[in-house]
Each structure stands twice: as C-alpha cells, then as structure tokens.
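Annotated sample (chain length 474).
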Amino acid sequence: MGLEVLYLAAIIFLAGKIIMDTKNTSKTLAYLMLIIFLPVVGIIIYFVFGVNYRKNRFYTFKIERNEQVYQAVSEYIRETHHKTLESHKEDIDQFLTTVNFLYNAGHSPLSQGNYAEVLINGEGKFEKVFEVLEKAVHHIHLEYYIYENDGIGNRLADLLIRKAGEGVIVRFLYDDMGSGKIGKKLLKRLKEGGVQVSPVNKITFRLLANRVNYRDHRKIIIVDGAEVFTGGINVSDKYINPNPKQYWRDVHLYMKGEAAFYFQFLFFSNWVFATEKIPEISQLYFTKKREEGTSLIQTAASGPDTKPSIMLSTTSAVLSAKKRIYIVTPYFIPVETVLNAIKQAALSGVDVRLMVPKSGDSVIVNAAAYSYYEELLENNVRIFFYKKGFIHAKTMLIDDQFSSVGTANMDVRSQELNFEVNALVFDQKINGKLQDLFHEDMNDCEEISLEFWRKRPKSKVFFEHMARLLSPLI
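Output written by the structure step:
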C-alpha cells in the first residue's frame, strides 16, 4: 500500500512537471498518456526523451555565442537586407511578410545578385561539390548530419586533406548521432591531415541517444565565403544510387554570391558552440557585393537556440499562395499551424500537391504520416505516393517565383527541435526547374483518392492514429 501511494504521488508530481515544462500541447498530452497508461516504462521514456537536460546550455551559452558572431557581421547584414529590399520590393511583394519575418526573427537578410542551380540526386551534387572544392583557396566549411566511412566519404576526405595540405583552412562539423558510421579511423585521418573536426554535440552513451533532441540535421558546404551547397543529400554512397533496386531520390541546391553570407554566420555560430573557441572572423570569410546572377535568396534557419523560423516562415509563405503549392517531403507529420495553412490554401482554390514516399523507412513514422492524409484529401489536397524508390527531397514551390530547398522535413522534429536550414529562392527559373522536376516525378507516382483511402482496413487506420498520438515524440 505504501509503495502504491508513493508511486501515485510520483505520478502526480511528474504530471505537474510535464505540464509546466512542456510548452507544446500535443507533446504534453502525449507524455501524460505515457506516464499514466504505461506504468514505469512511460516514466523511463519521458526521462530519456522528454526532459530538456541541455536547456540551460542551449539557451544561455549558445545564444551568447550566436550574439558574439552576429556582432561581427551585423552591419553588413543590415546593409545587405535594406539595399536588396529597396531595389526589389516589388519583385517579392507577394512574400514580403515572410521576408520581413525572417529578417526580424533571425537576422536573415534578403540578398541579391546570386546564381542558383538545382542539383539532382547525389550524382549531380557530388560532381559539382568536387569541382568547386578543387578551386578553394582560403577556406572550406562543412556541416553534416550524416557522414559515412564509405566510397564517397573517403573520396571527399582525401580532397579535404589535400586542400588542407595546400594551406586552405578546412573546418568540419558533424552530428555525432547521425554520423555514427563515420568511424574513429576516418576522423583520425582527417585530423592528422590538417582538417579541424568537431561534433556539434558529443554523445557519450549512444544506446540511450536514439532520437534524442537537438540533432544537427543541416547539410552545408561553404567555399571561400562565396559558394554554398545545401539540401537533403548527406555524405553517403546510398545517395549516388549504386544499387538501382534501392533508388534514392533527392535534391540539393548550389548557390554563388551573397547568399553564402548567412550560411557562414550559421556555421560560425555552431562552430563556436561546438568547440568553445572563437576564431578570427575576417572579411575573407564573407562575400561582399559580388554579382553572380539574378536570384534573390533568403535563408530560413531553426534550432533549439532560435525562434521556430522554418515553421513560421513556411506557414506565412503557404498563406501567400495564389495559384499552386507543390511540396515534396519524406516525412509528413506537420505541426498544426502548417497543417491548417495547407488546408486553408487548398480550400481557397490553390492547387496544393503533396509528394511523399509510398513506404517510409520507419513503420511508426510512416503510420503517423498516413493518419493525416484523409483530412488532407477531404480538403482538396492532392497526394502522390512516390514508388520508384525513397524520395528524400525537402522542397516546396509556390506560384511561379518562390522555391524552398533545404534540410528540414515537414515534421515536428525538424520544425521544432533540430538544427535545420532552408534556402528560399525568389527566381522564376529555379521555380520552373522544380516544377518540371515535380511533374517528371509524378510519372513514378500513384495519386491516391479519398474514396480509395477510406476503404483501408479499420485495424490499419486505428494503428495509424495511435502512431499519430506519438508523433510529437518521434
């Protein structure tokens, strides 16, 4: 009897803690259900995944370091943004609210005169990456969620070591969870070859770290402060499709010009946080007034140290649509604000299309995503299941001008917890390229209808809705 009373008191205390500490309502309810309906096990799950052990570290130390980096470049950020707005306000008038939000919320400037190029799959990305890295003369900065010790990983490592030997400054950040297969030997070889290497967050007990919060999910390469790559493609052989039976469909973006400036700011912010060292940040790291093309580009970045800029800018951009919205994402478990914006756009007559994998790489995640499709179909959203392989791209295009290419999935984890980055490109040519790509990929898709979706077995629907209850935690 005494143990039962003690356990009940512990549950009541823990429930109060969850209510006070968890800001997201759906997460609060999910954790409360766990501790009530899964005795002991639910408590363990909460303490492993729910407690914000590093909250103080992230929200004090990192914010302070971000501000130090920002002060070094703040004048140029302000100058770049306001000059671009003066010259191109009419060109981005439809999305002015989104542009102003990103500048005010995260110091992200709208830049002009950029060249942008869509890179398809790992085959297209790495060919361009090696070409650009060969020409580096001052620095190469890399930040990756997944870097594997395989063919492409070693080929890239060889090039980085060679460039470091030529006197180029090479810095490499990796996520210790995502890059679990990088291996100690490769890390040692990089360090001995002159590459400065650091994990963003060091993981001590890997078995207890699965799906832990605050993953660095970004994929960034910056060369000489002028050229930058970002998108969905990590450093791994599977992205170059060596096995046609395991086809990996993805998109990356190459940019040259002032757009690199803000990516450099993001990299330095994480580098200082990870290494606790502040390098001399000279003007050699930042491009200034170099006209390379005609694209207007702004960056949406999110993480545990910032406002949820990707989620809120996505919502704002979706609500600005007048003709079409094409979304490609491997994981569709949206936060409520984004979900409602998509439904509102579709019901307003906008042609909204969602392309997702027919089968995901996680049974629970796939089931949770499936639970959203009926209400999307009921609200005029068209859904396409990609069948050729696994579609891993994270792109969104709106009307004829706005395009987003980046690292953020359209799920709770990407939009609330991970370090993520999306490039927002205001350019009809890039938008047209992504439109063509979307229509091409539709040939490898099957469109699902509301009538078909409603005929699925009730047991499957029940499982999907149970998975949805856990979606804030996965």
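Annotation: The radius of gyration is 22 Å.
Annotation: The chain has 16 helices and 19 strands.
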